[in-house]
Amino acid sequence: MRSTGVDFLRMTRRQHGDLVVVSLTGEVDVDNVSQVRQCLDEAASAPRPRLVVDLTGLTFIDTTGLGVLVRLLATLRERNGTMALVAPDGQVLRRLRRTNLAALFPIYDTLSQALA
Predict the structure, then answer these.
(1) Band of the pLDDT at 5, cuts 50, 70, 90?
(2) Residue 100 in 3-state DSSP?
């Protein structure tokens, strides 16, 4: 587990079968987005990556964080990979919907649903 200190962000990465699950907890903003990008890029380094990004513990994400998710999705699709989000009803899901980005991703309410 990595923690970014004053940025109030924790990131964890674990393998679940052929899926990589990255969980983000806290806030993603311009101050820590480069660390998020690095963590997600490392998680997606396999030849045909299958990634689940669990945003359940995220309390805030700004447009730079949303941009990282969109760019990673495009990169994964180019490499025949997949990416799903776990975003139960809350601020993060509302932001995805308001920015019309929700339609780009498979979005699940729970991690267990995403892993099924």
Answers:
(1) very low
(2) coil
